[in-house]
Amino acid sequence: MNQNVPLWSPSPQEIAASPISAFMRLASEESGRSIADYDALHAWSVEDRESFWPLIWDFCGVVGDKGERVLIDGDRMPGAKFFPDARLNFAENLLKKTGPSDALVFRCEDKVERRLSWDELRALVSRLQQLFRAQGVKAGDRVAAMMPNMPETIACMLAATSLGAIWSSCSPDFGEQGVLDRFGQIEPVLFIAPDGYWYAGKRIEVGAKVAAVLARMPSVRAAFIVDYLGSATDVAAGINKAQELGQAIASYEPAELTFERLPFDHPLYILFSSGTTGIPKCIVHSAGGMLLQHVKEHRLNAGIREGDRFFYFTTCGWMMWNWLVTGLASGATLLLYDGSPFHPDGNVIFDFAQAEQMTYFGTSAKFIDSVRKAGLRPIETYDLSTVRVISSTGSPLAPECFRFVYDGIKKEVHLASISGGTDIAACFVLGVPTKPVWVGEIQGPGLGMATDVWDDDGKPVRGEKGELVCTRAFPSMPVMFWNDPDGSKYRAAYFERFDNIWCHGDFAEWTTHGGMIIHGRSDATLNPGGVRIGTAEIYNQVEQMEEILEAICIGQTWDDDVRVVLFVRLAPGVVLDEALEKKIKARIRTGASPRHVPARIVAVADIPRTKSGKITELAVRDIVHGRTVKNQEALANPEALELYRDLPELRA
């Protein structure tokens, strides 16, 4: 495939019909200058934030009182305040739409299929709102959920936030200590959990875990058990303070919803850092910041329109769940999936896409790579004609996977690789529907986001790798960290590297097309001989090899320097012999550079990853160096770490 030819370009008709083109016309009127393309729009959005963000508010139909002022202390990070006089409610904005059409469509592997109309969703939220109000829930209280990605989770979030309560969630596969490490810090008044969940065809009960968590969380006044496996009544009966949710709302009739309008920066969500280097940080996000960032990204960059059918494969412990649910504010139908994306085989998500006429197909880079390696070719077996966008995040999408999307999934589609983080619950760089897609590149910076790449001296660089930064304040910066009264943890997380500049911790590079390549986390960057190398550059090479299913790479302190160590999980029947080692090294040498070639290659049976599916380079690095991994509860498969302890291959 010719590297000088884009993988896809939007047609003139697609560009003209996109919501972002309509927004450009308004921006031209507002600014009094010609804004004819995305680069010009981005430049204006960063230069004139006090005109840009109100235009987003109006264009996206935000419900609430905007107030007079747009931005105060705009040159301070942290410290800037957007819309300081505004009053709004997040849930009110997500429940604007009414009627009999689908609001939520839910599938759980091959076990459950349900749908709720907009009117049915509003009725359920009304009953939950009355229940929560009867429990004394008020603005600022925390409501925590250990839940699958199912309709009740969204309805409970909407009911809680309609009252001004702060929502926090994780997935039900978290261990007891993992749940307590998160929710124990924020002291919720209500706790919501299922009786269990399904994964890979297995029925997994969680009643004993819920009871153990509640016994150690004295702040909880009441717990509600959601029926998923058919045993919620029995589970609730055995737990102090617990009721089955259906029974708890049975006495309430749907009534007119009420919404507590609160300041723009009133806390909405508490999200958590991965927690692999210590107890998770509690990141507090504002209602206004989340709403404005998400509707901007959905409407303009994702091209979401009313009636679209919007899917992202995510759990409730990953920020992509929070990103997905805001799709309701654009009038989109949310397609929810819970369970393994490979049960009974790798076609289940494509079955869902075809059956529900999915328009936005969001997934992880790992899923796309797994489909490719499984030899599946949905392009030949599925009607994906309704899919306009395929989106990827979670880790950098390898160039080979960019090509596979067009060769193996759908030829005419906007492939939007996106990157941001839990820290902002939004994107720094993402898809641009009016621009071509180039292999291996994220298309451009988010509007209103002064995204840049700086070297170690704090100077902007082009065409070379550096730190991903944001040089101006934006609405979805966290309000604070919970239990951080003087703000020292918050400042240390993002602002110590460069004063008054958000330093995100990604190792990145601008391309000649104005796009970006993310080379991995900068704290996992390899430094052999003092040269900075991104781990993604190595993965991009080895994970194209049919002998290798996946890999993880670290820097090992060795002989007063750092040497690159590559761990590989091999395909069935493959042995890591001298010939394969030579092949791997040759591939990396020619595809990346001689500096990237690992000093040691080690075969392993498993690779540790977080609950949201991200490989944990830092945890492996700590184990290899004999250090304790402080919070193994954050891992989906903590037992895998033992595979890396005291390896004889790394002693010489």
From TrEMBL:
Source taxon at top rank: Bacteria
Domain AMP-dependent synthetase/ligase: 101-470
Enzyme class at the top of the EC tree: ligase
Keywords annotated in UniProt: ATP-binding, Ligase, Nucleotide-binding
GO molecular function: acetoacetate-CoA ligase activity; ATP binding
AMP-binding enzyme C-terminal domain ranges (all copies): 543-614
Name of protein: Acetoacetate--CoA ligase
GO biological process entries: lipid metabolic process
Entry's family note: Belongs to the ATP-dependent AMP-binding enzyme family.
Acetyl-coenzyme A synthetase N-terminal domain segment(s): 38-93
Pfam families, A to Z: ACAS_N, AMP-binding, AMP-binding_C
EC numbers, comma separated: 6.2.1.16
